[in-house]
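Narrative progress, year one. The postdoctoral researcher (J.K.) led the effort to move from monomer predictions toward full complexes, under supervision of the PI. The following entry was the first complex the group processed end to end, covering 463 residues in total.
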Amino acid sequence: MLAPLRNENLDGGVMMILPLSKRDIDPRIRHSCQKDDRIMTTDQRISTANATSNAFRSLPFMGVIRVNVAAMEVGFRMGHPDWINLGQGQPEVGELEGAPPRYNQINLQPEDHAYGAVEGVDELREAVAAHYNRLYRQGKSSQYTAANVAVAAGGRLALSRCGAALDNVRLGYFRPDYTAYEDLMTTFQRLNPVAIDLLPEDGFRIDPDALDAIVQADGLGALLISNPCNPTGMILQGEELQAWIEMGRRNNCAMLMDEFYSHFNYTDGPSSPPVSSAAYVNDVNEDEVVIFDGLTKCFRYPGWRIGWVVAPESIIQTMTAAGSFVDGGPSRPMQRAAIDILKPERADQETNALRHAFAAKQNLTLERLADMGIKVHGQPQGTFYVYASVADLPDAINAGTSFMHAGFKHQVLTVPGEYFDVNPNRERQGTSPFEQFVRFSFGPPIDKVEQGLDRLAKMIKTY
Ligand SMILES: Cc1ncc(COP(=O)(O)O)c(C=O)c1O
């Protein structure tokens, strides 16, 4: 077998990709090989991990991860100084002006060697509840407690626990949205996914009344959405978000609110407040509002794998039961460190610094893309992405995939927009409506973002 490639997961962790050569495949199972990477085209190979056994399915890498795999084919390595990763789904993780110093020591206690609670340690659960009450529920009679919080090793695991905990339900989801939702809905077969299209000409937004009508007509029992939205950067907030939460309450539709970018709001510049549906919940144990967030994006610690769910106590119990077989609970020392990160003064200092730094990067990215003739629909307000159309560029680079491959020649990574065309079980055939979109990340430090945009501008001029 060839040496394993170390592939950094664009949205967090690290995985190993094992390229198999024809020679390496055991002849006894050769007949069952569906794909061999030496005879697959690059695009086939990046869209499908090899299945070398009848027992295992041919499983594609989650959308954005494919970009890394494709880039590695042409020399990209994580941390390689010559490459600029405008595809990355992680915020810069180094020191940031105005932010507290990066946490640099994890302490181990003798009890850390034992299993911890599946739902997380009580002290962190209390700290998360207090964080939500402080930011979003001041003056409200119904307050979150530790019983409303479960901690999981990262957002995708929290979502997976949720997928394992949901019953047969008609689950509404939006296109485009976060790529992992496709895998979630494909993996948990009890879920019955119902797509709702967000159109570029509507700025990727949907009116709450129109949504209400869809929820009723389709009999949706739950809705899943990222807000702020990865990839579009759109944010539901204020009265609009309130209308969504009320719509869920009226229709008995559980609102699964993925708020992993809750602090990346620059609607009114860097002083914009964080956004959470927690502000519009009436009774924390009655309203079926399930909030996902964590340290991954808003506190710039994706490697810590600390995510959480905030929800009615009964839902937390069900999701904990799911966690008891899915994963067994998060790391104990990392949870203790997370308590420090959520201390109010430190947390506010971090998130304010973050908004200042990222608002500047958003401005830069929007300006530079406009100069390149890359069109943004609507006015993105948050996250660290710009989702834009390359349709007006020369034919050779006017699609997300050709643009990505052209970018590789200049050592820049971007993500084709069609990867966010959530399509569980790949049931929908044909061309994606987002074929001519690209997701640009301004997650890296500003000098890198600027360099990457310079290279793309130069690249476009060569066509
Ligand atoms: C919308 C959204 N939710 C959840 C996550 C998951 O984060 P984690 O890396 O903690 O699994 C991501 C990561 O990219 C995301 O974009």
